[in-house]
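User: Can you help me understand a structure? I only have the sequence.
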Amino acid sequence: MNFSEAFRTGANFGLTSGVLTTLGLIVGLHSGTHSRAAIIGGVLTIAVADALSDALGMHIHEESENQHTPREIWVSTAATLVTKFAMAASFLLPLVILKLSYAIVASIAWGAIVLTLISFLLAREQHIHAGKVISEHLGIAALVVVLTHFVGDWTARLMS
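Assistant: Let's start by predicting it. Here is the structure, written out as tokens:
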């Protein structure tokens, strides 16, 4: 692994995790609370706590492979931290400027766009059919959205 590969590893992980984790949180909190403040607080928490957690997870993973230089490990760690934080934080814009119901739709669309782009670039790099990779990754994202919606509904019913 070189600097470029180490950065790409961390960035791809951070972006993907940022999309899926933040979308799940947004959809779940929306269906459970319908509270803009709760959702924004959750996104900020994800941006900080989960970015740090994922960065440490990437760091330990790269160390455990026992194949990378300390510089490569730290590049992957930093790329994970920065991209996860930035990706999660990017979901704040629609939550702040749009009516909440529109912000949820915009967030799902934004997440789908990012995942599509990452998937397309990954498929092109690996010389495989992009449609298959994109549909697989969007399918997983859709599963996250649907499941977290129902978890939010269930939690709301449980707490009322």
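Now, to help you interpret it: The two ends are 52 Å apart (CA to CA). The chain has a mean pLDDT of 96. Let me know which part you'd like to focus on.
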